[in-house]
Amino acid sequence: MSGILQGKVALVTGAGHGIGRGHALELAKQGAKVVVNDLGGSAKGEGSGRVAEEVCEIIRARGGEAVPDFGDVGDEAQVEAMVQRAIDSFGRLDILVNNAGIVRDKAIWNMGADDFDLVMRVHLRGTWLTCRAAARYWRERAKAEGGKVYGRIINTTSGAGLLGNFGQSNYATAKAATVGLTLTLSVELASIGVTVNAVGPGGLTRLSAGDKALKEADQYAEDEWEPLGPKVSSPLVAWLASEEAGYVSGQVIRAIRDKIYWMHGWTEARTISNGNKPWKAEELGKRFGTEVFGVRAAGLSLGG
Ligand SMILES: NC(=O)c1ccc[n+]([C@@H]2O[C@H](COP(=O)([O-])OP(=O)(O)OC[C@H]3O[C@@H](n4cnc5c(N)ncnc54)[C@H](O)[C@@H]3O)[C@@H](O)[C@H]2O)c1
C-alpha cells in the first residue's frame, strides 16, 4: 500500500469498532503498519473480546500489515506491552492514535462513582498512559539518534468535553481533560519533534447511537459518503499523522459530517483591572454588568 504514511508504524487504540476502526483502515490505506488495539468489550466497558483480530484480517486482505493487541488502555503494564508490540512487530512506533472509549451516561444525581471512575480510567488514564509510554520511547530514541524523532500523537476529544452535554459529566470531564493533556504534551514533546493534537470526531456508532449505530467503517465502499458514518474523521487523523502536518501541534480540530472545524477556546474575552488596589466583592457586580457582560446584574442599579 502506498500513501502519505508509507513506512510509518501506528498504534490505534479502540480500533475494533466504530471510529477507531475507520482510523486503522485509513492509516493502513495510507501505507502505515498498524497495531490494532481493542479490549473488545461493550460500549459501557463490560467484558472483552477479540474484535481487533477481525480488523487486522481486513487490513491484510487489502494488502496492508497489521497485528492485533487485546490490551486494556487503563492498565499500565498492558499499555507498555502495546508500545512494545509495535517495536517487536514492525521495528518502531511513529504514530499513536488514542481513540478507545466507553460511555456511562446519566444525569449527575443518578451517576455512581463507579460510572465516573471507569469512564475516566478508559478515556483519560488510558490516553495518559499510552502518551507516557510513547513519550518515554521517543525520548530515548531522540537521545540516541541526536535530538529529534518522527512522532505523532492524535488524541480524541468530543463536543461534550469542549462545550458540555447533559448526562455526560463523567465523559465530558475526561474529554475536556484530554485537551489539557494534549496542550501540555505539545509543549513537553516539541523539542524532540513529536506533535500532539486532538480531534473531535462524529458519527453514529454503538457508543453514540446504541442500536441506531450505522455500519462499521469497512462496510462502506471506498468512496461512499455517509456523513454520519464512522470514518468521516479518519482522513484528518491520517493527515495529522503525516510528515506534511509536522508544523501542526497543540491544536484541537473537529471533523463532523462534511465540515472540519479548527477550534479555539479559552482566550481572554474581556479584561478589567483593579488599578493595583484590592478587589471589593460588593463592587464587582457593577463592574461585571457594565464592563464585562454588558448586562445589568439582577437587582443592581447602574446609576451609581
Ligand atoms: N461517535 C461519536 O459521535 C463520537 C463523538 C465524539 C467523540 N467520540 C470518541 O471517539 C472514540 C471512538 O468512539 P466510537 O463512537 O467509535 O465508539 P465504539 O464503541 O464504536 O468504539 C470504541 C472502541 O474502544 C474500545 N475500548 C473500550 N474500552 C477500551 C479499553 N479499556 N482498552 C482498549 N479498547 C477499549 C471498544 O471495544 C470499542 O471498539 C471515543 O473516544 C469517543 O469518545 C465519538
From TrEMBL:
Q: Keywords on this record?
A: Oxidoreductase
Statement: the UniProt record of this protein carries the keyword Transmembrane: no
The Ketoreductase domain covers which part of the protein? 8-202
Q: Taxonomically, which superkingdom?
A: Bacteria
Residues spanning the signal sequence: none
PANTHER family tied to this protein: DEHYDROGENASES, SHORT CHAIN, SCP2 DOMAIN-CONTAINING PROTEIN
The record's family statement is:
Belongs to the short-chain dehydrogenases/reductases (SDR) family.
> Under which name does UniProt file this protein?
SDR family NAD(P)-dependent oxidoreductase
